[in-house]
Amino acid sequence: MRPFRYERPATAARAVAAAGGEAHFLAGGTTMVDLMKLDVMRPERLLDITQLEDGRYDFIDWDGKSLRIGALTAMATLADDDEVRRRVPMLSDALWLAASPQIRKAARIGGNVLQRTRCAYFRDTSYAQCNKREPGSGCAALDGGVTRGHAVLGTSSACIATYPGDFAQSLIALDAVVEILGKDGPRAVRFAELHRQPHSRPDIETTLEEGDLIVAFSIPDADFPRSRYLKVRDRESYAYALASTAGALRMDGDVVADIRIALGGVATVPWRAREAEEMLKGSSISEDGLERAAEAAFAGASTTEDNAYKVDLGKRTMVRTFLELARMEG
Asked: The FAD-binding PCMH-type domain covers which part of the protein (predicted)?
């Protein structure tokens, strides 16, 4: 790890003013410190934001069916919140399945949605070819690499690295909004607009501007008791998704009144399956109908020999999620 300067701004405004260039925010540090040890990230200054304004950004607030969550809320705090578990279990599921208990206590949800890929060619600097780490250098994964864990949706000729997070799938499914404090003041963007697909510039991963600080997430309609996050992985704990589905369902009798589908482990960014949602709205839930919707969700998949299995696995994960939700009360 290279030398760096540690600072602790007292307010969000001061943190934003100090950020930019080689100065990076630090909260739980579960991704940043990891990548610093690997020499992938080399910040000259770290701005510890965990004590900003005495916990002003650490909260879980319900207002009717809307939910607002401070970005410095610990993963464990949100996962264990009784109201969240009762009213929108998908959020709690995604956090419970995301990491070890120690990491859930340290990591904050603002940093969680910005975690970087687990692609071995990005994280190992002995590989010179990585467009995400060194723009224009090429992609070792595509140039004869092992791609079993890589993405099949949202890929480009420059990068097929998978977005690794779980919580983000629930946020995109719930039409969350990201509240940001930037150098020009506060603003809000749809969570669906936060992450960028790689295209020709995989190194530009989000639409955040220099110095932007995520301060909260708001979900206008978070009351989805019939929801869940299903994650398929190589082992039962502390492993990243090979395929996952964040699913939420509202029924009007036997007919789908509202449905939300987001896919994880298979895409370069948090992935909303809107075509599949449209196919299922207004119909009854059946295995045949879900299989047709899953086909639509993966119609644009681009695979390698190693990761082609993810298409079938992703479809089966999506179908299973909604067959189980259909059997739930709510």
From this structure: 1-224
Whether residue 295 is contained in a domain is answered as yes
11-34 CB burial, b ≥16 within 10 A, e <16: ebebbbeebeeebbbbbbbbbbee
Distance CA(158)–CA(130), nearest Å, equals: 9
Rg (CA), the chain: 20
Question: Rounded distance, CA 208 to CA 188, Å?
Answer: 11
pLDDT at 330: 60
Q: Which two tokens stand for residue 122?
A: 């990005």
pTM: 0.96
Number of domains, the chain:
1
Q: Which tens digits make up the pLDDT trace of 123-143?
A: 999 999 999 999 999 999 999
Residue 290 lies in a domain: yes
Query: CA dihedral in degrees (314, 196, 143, 125; nearest 10)?
Result: -110
Tell me the sheet residues that pair with 217: 69, 178
Residue 5's DSSP bridge partners are 45
Residue 198 belongs to some domain of the structure:
no
Mean pLDDT, residues 7-14 taken together: 95
Q: First CA to last CA across the chain, in angstroms? A: 51
Average pLDDT value over all residues in the chain: 96
The enclosing domain of 267 has a CATH number of 3.30.390.50
> Is 127 inside any structural domain?
no
Q: What is the pLDDT of residues 223-271, one digit of tens each?
A: 999 999 999 999 988 899 999 999 999 999 999 999 999 999 999 999 9
Domain with 255 in it? 233-327
